[in-house]
Amino acid sequence: MDNKKTKILIVEDEVLINKAYTEELRDEGFIVVTAANGKEGLDLALSEKPDLILLDILMPVMDGLTMMSKLRERGPYGKNVPIILLTNLAAGEDKIMKAITKDEPAYYLVKSDWNLSGVVEKIRERLGQKA
Fold first, then answer.
1. Angle, nearest 10°, between helix axes 38-48 and 64-72?
2. Residue range 53-67, pLDDT digits in tens
3. What's the whole-model pTM score?
4. How does pLDDT run across 25-59, given as a tens digit for each residue?
């Protein structure tokens, strides 16, 4: 998959984090669309059909787990698009683990454990790209 045509949707309400991910992914050649909450993210996911979604869990209007659940109910695209969940919560959170297990394909990253290049590597891995 060529980065020039690979579209990533970032759904993140923290402006600085959203901007950092956007700049890093654009520098890597990805097409990037962004949303500040789950409702915007769901609308953009359905209209833009990105190849992968970076999704924050704790957001205003609609949280990431709700957005992911609603997206997964929306036909083949919504059911199959890879999602990487970003959160400050620990992986021990039952709610998160249940949502991830139920709604494959989803992957989980704790923001404090990952730097930008690590997230880009994980995106490439989920998309089946070589680094």
1. 30
2. 999 888 888 888 889
3. 0.80
4. 999 899 999 999 999 999 999 999 999 999 988 88
**CA–CA distances in Å: residue 124 to residues 66, 68, 80:** 25, 20, 16
Distances (CA, A) of 4 to 18, 26, 55: 20, 9, 21
Report the number of distinct structural domains present in the chain. Answer: 1
Tokens 């039952």 appear where?
94
Determine contact, residues 82/126, Cβ cutoff 8 Å. yes
CATH of the domain at 45: 3.40.50.2300
Residue type, 121: E
Residue 120 structural domain: 3-127
Question: In this structure, what token pair is assigned to residue 24?
Answer: 């890093």
